[in-house]
Amino acid sequence: MASSSLAAAEVAMRSGDGVEGVEEMTLTVRWSGKEYTVRVCGDDSVAELKRRICEVTNVLPKRQKLLYPKISAKLSDDSVLLSQLNLKPSVKMTMIGTVEDDIIVDQADSPEIVDDFELGHDEVIDIKDKFVNKQKLLRRISQHKIKLLNPCREGKKLLVLDIDYTLFDHKSPAENPRELMRPYLHEFLSAVYAEYDIMIWSATSMKWVELKMGQLGVLNNPNYKITALLDHMAMITVQSDSHGLFDCKPLGLIWAQFPEFYNAKNTIMFDDLRRNFVMNPQNGLTIRPFRKAHLNRSSDQELLRLTQYLLAIADLPDLSQLDHNYWELYAEDSTKRRRHR
């Protein structure tokens, strides 16, 4: 079931308690000779507005230039909140941008991934418990429906995986994308599929996710099935005191849409960016980034060792009670116990 904190936030939203300054507005955006309507809130950022525009136009946020009388310059700053702008539903916004019909396989043209940063424990608690962020999550739950590629399986835990630098070195050049695949990827997915449903969640576009997973042979492997793919449209934008606005991947979106299968107790998420699971820190495991594939693919055993960890914890009733920062010690202890049986 969805968490009690989200349920409380939903009740407050319905009653009107604590929602001052986050009223919804409908904006009209002109692009390529057509007009589109998008719904946003005052506490949304320009980045979120671009995400909403992307939903209806398929123009990626990084390709968008927004024009609006007197404030066009401010719309170039993704961190600006819409409540700080004098946007009027009666005034139409213009968007200039191009749809990426073909994504070039050359990794130099792949989406940019910003380096990670550390957030203090108190700051993480503040972000995940902040009412405005719970509101954003509830809106995302209502707006974004996850499309299943394969049915959820009764009694299985859930593994959510990032792509770039987690399963794939997205920046090194290569003639064949499989040269950049993290070692033991298919062995890893095949082994953990026995105990876990698998979802792939990337901070890039769905077209990029489908392309990369298809090129790596993940979507049609006979030994495992991918339950669903999620992209940047499923993320929400939150704000920290130390690092400003950034996007994250709230697992509550999945739990709310499939409450009979997944929850905080049976879900674990791998990502090389710790900030991506700021809304659910107890469910995140920070994987070592896989970079410079040509130099490191002969020595990288991260997925092999993580296979041991996932299988070792598969029978536990509550994964959120584990400190995944110490996963290597847990995996080693589990291996030693098996050897002495």
TrEMBL record:
Q: Which reaction does it catalyse?
A: O-phospho-L-seryl-[protein] + H2O = L-seryl-[protein] + phosphate; O-phospho-L-threonyl-[protein] + H2O = L-threonyl-[protein] + phosphate
Single GO term (MF): protein serine/threonine phosphatase activity
Q: What biological-process GO terms show up in the record?
A: regulation of proteasome assembly
Q: Which residues form the FCP1 homology domain?
A: 152-313
UniProtKB keywords: Hydrolase, Magnesium, Metal-binding, Nucleus, Protein phosphatase
Q: Which cofactor does it need?
A: Mg(2+)
The chain positions of domain Ubiquitin-like read 25-96
- EC code(s) of this entry: 3.1.3.16
Annotated InterPro entries: FCP1_dom, HAD-like_sf, HAD-SF_hydro_IIID, HAD_sf, Ubiquitin-like_dom, Ubiquitin-like_domsf, UBLCP1
Q: Where does the protein end up?
A: Nucleus
Instruction: List the Pfam families.
Output: NIF, ubiquitin
Chief subcellular location: nucleus
GO CC terms, sorted = nucleus
This protein is called what?
A: protein-serine/threonine phosphatase
